[in-house]
Specification:
Elements lengths: L1 H29 L6 H9 L4 E5 L2 E4 L1 E6 L3 E6 L16 E4 L2 E4 L6 E2 L4 H26 L8 H21 L7 H18 L11 H18 L2 H8 L8 H51 L2 H41 L4
Antiparallel strand pairs: 1-2, 3-4, 3-7, 5-6
């Protein structure tokens, strides 16, 4: 029953996505232009200073800029568009492909609330509301079976704790559990939000995955015990005198340094690449309808896009699991006691 419900939801998402794409295609054909799938795909996966909910319905977001020439400047992104939605200069600023600079060419620090930042706040708000409700349910149903939203999330929390965090970190797992639970649900919810029509590609943004990876790296290095650092700085131990080890360490130390860096790098790229690739595949399949303008191809692409949406629901959970699992393993290596 639950799987059938998820199937219906996925179909609705796909059909609505087709309608959004069709509206964009219709707007382009009025100007006598051919449908360009690359423009549509880049528009959906890239960040923006406004949130286009539907063709012709756009929510402007705050633009926050700082430059030595003009100081701090805050205004709505709607000022960059005219009545025909063409990009125009505003107050000495120009925007080209979502990159803002001064007309003089001077550099501008852009700390705007972009579409990805806006959805990051939405993701955080959803997490706060859900887990406050779970906490209330836990207090209310103490020593009783969980009910409502608590009954859905409590088994997932216990699974993350008992099957991911505890086996990989060991006895000191409780110190890292809040961060790892937050990491798991932030990535999972962000992945699911990205599957909604007109939503932001939050976890497919490499800046977001970079920050998550850097957090994991900082915690790993800050948690490193003597055994962890000795393994990096003196991997050969007492097997030979220092005079003989120095030439080998000139080779081993760069390798160890690369190993430290590649762990968060792999976390960053894996999440970014998998989520972005999934979005590109779905949008490419939908684009076939408007490239061929064929009813048969349209029906087939809708069916394939629905299957891909179902697969992406699984990938959304899988990527959160993998990121949390690998981070737990890195924490476990840092706090491991010498045997």
């Amino acid at each position: 029953m639950t799987s059938f419900k998820h199937l219906k939801i996925s179909i609705l998402f796909t059909v609505f996505g087709l309608l959004v794409s069709q509206a964009s295609f219709a707007g382009e054909t009025k100007e006598g232009e051919k449908f360009d799938p690359s423009v549509m795909i880049n528009h959906h996966i890239m960040d923006a200073h406004s949130w286009e909910i539907y063709h012709g319905l756009t929510l402007p977001l705050p633009v926050i800029l700082y430059s030595e020439e003009k100081g701090l400047d805050i205004f709505s992104s709607a000022n960059f568009y005219d009545a025909d939605h063409n990009v125009v200069p505003y107050n000495g600023y120009v925007m080209e492909h979502e990159h803002i600079s001064l007309e003089s060419g001077a550099h501008v620090y852009d700390i705007s609330i972009t579409k990805n930042v806006f959805f990051l706040f939405i993701n955080a708000l959803i997490m706060i509301l859900i887990f406050l409700a779970v906490a209330r349910g836990y207090k209310k149903n103490a020593k009783r079976a969980p009910r409502g939203i608590q009954s859905f999330f409590e088994p997932i929390i216990i699974y993350v704790r008992d099957e991911i965090v505890k086996p990989n970190i060991g006895a000191k797992y409780e110190r890292y559990l809040p961060y790892l639970l937050t990491l798991f649900f932030f990535i999972w919810f962000g992945n699911l939000l990205g599957l909604l029509p007109a939503a932001a590609n939050l976890t497919g943004n490499i800046a977001v995955t970079l920050v998550l990876s850097v957090f994991s790296l900082i915690i790993t290095l800050a948690s490193g015990r003597k055994t962890y650092w000795l393994h990096i700085l003196d991997p050969l131990g007492n097997s030979m005198p220092w005079v003989a080890k120095i030439p080998l360490y000139l080779i081993l130390w760069p390798i160890e340094l690369i190993g430290i860096i590649t762990k968060p790098f792999s976390l960053m790229v894996r999440l970014f690449a998998n989520i972005t690739a999934g979005h590109i595949i779905i949008l490419s399949i939908i684009s076939l309808t408007f490239i061929t303008q064929s009813l048969v191809v349209g029906l087939a692409s809708t069916a394939f896009a629905t299957v891909m949406n179902m697969l992406e629901l699984f990938v959304a959970l899988l990527q959160a699991y993998v990121f949390t699992l690998l981070t737990s393993m890195y924490f476990g290596q840092a706090v491991e006691e010498h045997h």
